Amino acid sequence: MGKLTGKVAIVTGASRGIGQQIAELFAAEGARVVCAARTLNEGDHRMLEGSLARTVALIRHRGGEATAVTADVSSEAECIALVQAARDAYGPIDILVNNAALNYYLPTETYPTNRWMRCFAINVHAPFILSKEVLKDMVPRRAGAIVNISSGAAIGPGRGPYQDQAVRGGVMYGTTKAALERFTQGLAQEVAHHGGISVTAVSPSQVVPTPGTIHHKLVTGIDDPKGEPPMLMARAALLLASEPAEKVNGRVTYSQQILKEYGWIEEAKGRGVSIQGSGYSLV
């Protein structure tokens, strides 16, 4: 029996990258996964590879259960419709992974206000709306997990001296992720008295090579030795989603930090699994 057998999970941004890895791993652990994103079919996104259809096909090929729901989570109406579609497909929601995110790397003086607002809508407002909706299932049952995917960018660059990346347009993204982490711990405090519900956040310990980070040249490719394998974020999300709420509620952590804490990295090394580099294979 898998760690998530019988659970219903929504994963946003599941068409590629970290979200795809999380969806695949959750399904492998027995969850029925609702994969959400804007990109249904390969080629729908004009710049990045990956699609919901591919993610769902991979899951089903391995014997898992998943369905695709297209949603633009910058829209409140589409967020609400996504949760209802998930209920209609599989029943009450047990797990929500807020992974979808957007960034434009532009300096503040030239940042279009409409893009700034759209990034906040996806990176901050959507997790709020989706969390509010799934809590309608979690609170009556006193059970559930909300995992927010954050970033080291939430920590400000300090007083300097500054490296080039700190002034290349990361202000907006870091601001939204800082807001997401504050939302995480505030909501964790709110739901604590219900018992059985956890709200957590996890960031990659290093840049994860995904179609998005490669496109923005934050890493050179999936084999960049500076990158972190996407499977580590998937494993960290699985841990946070499956541990008892009293052990993890309110945690804001990093992938390698929590995996080391729970002994997964040493266990993986003992099985001969390499966690160096950034290949996309699941373990």
From TrEMBL:
Gene3D superfamilies: NAD(P)-binding Rossmann-like Domain (3.40.50.720). SUPFAM superfamilies: NAD(P)-binding Rossmann-fold domains (SSF51735). InterPro entries: NAD(P)-bd_dom_sf, SDR_fam. One of its GO terms (biological process) is fatty acid elongation. One of its GO terms (molecular function) is oxidoreductase activity, acting on the CH-OH group of donors, NAD or NADP as acceptor. It comes from the Bacteria. Belongs to the short-chain dehydrogenases/reductases (SDR) family. This is 3-oxoacyl-ACP reductase.
